[in-house]
Amino acid sequence: MTARKRYWLMKSEPDAFSIDDLKRVGKEPWNGVRNYQARNFMRDGMKVGDGILFYHSNTKVPGIVGIATVATEAYPDDTQFDPKSDYYDPKATRETPRWLLVDVAFERKLRNTISLDEIKLHADTLGEGFPLIARGNRLSILPVTAAQWKLLLSLEKH
Q: Are 146 and 50 in contact (CB under 8 A)?
């Protein structure tokens, strides 16, 4: 019996790494995550083949812009060991890494951005627990249920 496929929403600022960047390179390590809950999602929850809604944040029209796939199991994020990196963590060692990442693989760009404003219009259907629209949520990786995934992708057609 195979494990049930899971779904995620992963945020990236397009000036740092965009859906077009992912399309160009095909597969990329999702490095620089420095939040324990987001790290734990990668470590404990993500499996190869899981679906990813690629979300552009900190932009004029934030929203879902593409679909990607989890391409690897979690492994240590090398940026934590590099003193020249913005993501360096002096408490991390190769023997006991603190930060992990997964590789993400490009699937496709959406025909149009599913804006945060549009997503908020469907808050009732998405459910109270949908973290993207919860006040104060700052996580870069969020779990998405199969029903939420289906609803969100149905908005692409509008």
A: no
**Residues 30, 103 contacting (CB under 8 angstroms):** yes
Mention every residue, 6+ apart, whose C-beta is less than 8 A from residue 27.
71, 103, 104, 105, 106
Please check whether residue 56 is in contact with residue 63, taking contact to mean a CB–CB distance below 8 angstroms. Answer: yes
- Write out pLDDT tens, residues 60-106: 999 999 999 999 999 999 999 999 999 999 999 999 999 999 999 99
Nearest to 11 by CA among 50, 46, 55, 42: 55
Q: Which residue has the tokens 């990668």?
A: 42
Taking the whole predicted model, whether its pTM rises above 0.85 is answered as yes
Taking the C-alpha atoms of residue 132 and residue 151, their distance in angstroms, rounded to an integer, is 14
